[in-house]
Design goal:
Number of domains: 2
Number of helices: 13
Structural class: alpha+beta
Shape: elongated
CATH class of the largest domain: Alpha Beta
CATH architecture of the largest domain: 3-Layer(bba) Sandwich
Largest sheet: 7 strands, antiparallel
CATH superfamily of the largest domain: FAD/NAD(P)-binding domain
Helix content: 25-40%
Length: 421
């Protein structure tokens, strides 16, 4: 039998990890990695603001999958085989020192994504992976059995060159216009329509405008009754962002796309407190600090500028003392603190992530090996699949995990040689 010919399409995190895994597991195989861009691992380079958020320090798969709005159930088994602890050990074995920050995010101690990229490139070179940059694959044809060989694939490279592969790994990422999704569809897969995930909200409202750069450590955000999230909120020039907003956008990605990103956002600036509890705290402030101005002291630890905006929304000028706070004013302020309504009219993508939901339907993939159930010999990994995680290293971990299993699947596939052309 001739050596195995494997083609990896897509030079991102999942593609590189899959190619390295395959080449290390099957040293005799010829592993070629085709990347449309002229540079490798472009998305890894910008992840985590250029520091590369390698993974999340959560080592219980059942807990970890809760951070995947789509694909969590399917990832549970794979994460028992390759989880963040394995990812961290892999990089440590290759000389990359990592650190875990207070929120669980894991970065190289250099705070430079180039450290991670260099480790992957070195591992690929050591394993014998042939990296072919600026070589986009335009089409893939499944070639059936013939008298001279078994089934395989014929890849058409831009410019018309044809390349043979016994097995292929599709790891191009997703999004509208993705060549990988077009290839997967041509090979028999159903594609869930891609829509943005992890995005900030455009809000033109007096309570928000002019506060860019301000942050609130914790708030609860809600859309209707079904979608809710908690986390820090960041004020931007166009509205609101931060982990709480990004988390909500991920869980509601498809529903919010259906509204054309026009909906009502409810914010509780005093999370974990009921309306009655907030009323009681306001009454306590009136009793304990009667002579203090409402504008200069608040019992909720909110930034002064935001507090002033909430007072104005409740009909308070800000010069009143706590002792003069009327019951109707207190009620309006409690409303603003627990369930203020903010009109959203548009979105902006989170520049560090560029994550979409959508892609190859998960039920059509064997998550033990990442092999297609529709097209034997085709393996899939990363964001070409309809799975996505929250911000914080979850998407890269999904890439490492699915890339690892796909690479092992590629390496175990037997070769019967190319058919007659």
């Amino acid at each position: 039998m001739k050596p195995l010919d494997c083609a990896v399409i897509g030079g991102g995190a999942a593609g590189f990890f899959g190619a390295i895994t395959c080449a290390e597991a099957q040293p005799a195989a010829r592993v070629r990695l085709f990347e449309a861009l002229g540079r490798p691992l472009a998305k890894v380079a910008i992840s985590g603001g250029g520091r590369c958020n390698v993974t999340q320090a959560c080592f219980e798969p059942a807990e970890l999958v809760k951070s995947y709005p789509r694909g969590g159930r399917e990832l549970l088994g794979p994460l028992h085989r390759w989880q963040p602890r394995d990812t961290m050990a892999w990089f440590a074995d290759r000389g990359v020192e990592l650190k875990t920050e207070a929120d669980g995010r894991v970065f190289p101690v250099t705070d430079d994504s180039a450290t991670i990229i260099q480790a992957l490139l070195a591992a690929a070179q050591a394993a014998g992976v042939r990296w072919e940059a600026g070589r986009p694959v335009r089409a893939v044809e499944r070639v059936g059995p013939s008298d001279t060989g078994g089934p395989g694939f014929r890849l058409e490279i831009e410019g018309g060159e044809k390349v043979w592969a016994d097995r292929i790994l599709l790891a191009t990422g997703g999004g509208k216009g993705s060549a990988g999704l077009a290839i997967a569809h041509a090979l028999g897969h159903t594609i869930e329509p891609p829509v943005p995930s992890l995005f900030s909200f455009h809000i033109a409202d007096p309570r928000v405008t002019g506060l860019a750069g301000l942050s609130v450590a914790a708030a609860e955000v809600r859309i209707g009754r079904a979608l809710a999230a908690q986390g820090p909120i960041l004020f931007t020039h166009w509205g609101l962002s931060g982990p709480g907003i990004l988390k909500l956008s991920a869980w509601g990605a498809r529903e919010l796309a259906a509204t054309d990103y026009r909906f009502s956002l409810t914010i509780a600036w005093a999370p974990g407190r009921s309306r009655e509890q907030v009323r009681a705290e306001l009454a306590g402030a009136r009793e304990d600090h009667p002579k203090r101005k409402v504008s200069t002291w608040n019992p909720f630890g909110l930034p002064a500028r935001l507090w002033e905006r909430l007072l104005a929304a409740a009909g308070l000028a800000g010069g009143e003392s706590w002792s003069t706070l009327a019951k109707a004013q207190s009620e309006k302020l409690a409303q603003e603190l627990t369930a203020g309504e903010y009109p959203v009219a548009g979105k902006s993508m989170n520049k560090e992530e560029f994550v979409t939901c959508g892609g190859v339907r998960l039920s059509e993939v064997d998550f033990k090996t990442m092999e297609s159930k529709r097209c034997p010999g085709l393996f899939l990994a990363g964001e070409v699949l309809d799975l996505d995680g929250l911000t914080g290293g979850f998407n890269l971990q999904a890439a490492w995990t699915t890339g690892r299993l796909a690479g092992l699947g590629l390496a175990s596939a037997p070769s019967a040689g190319p058919p007659a052309v």
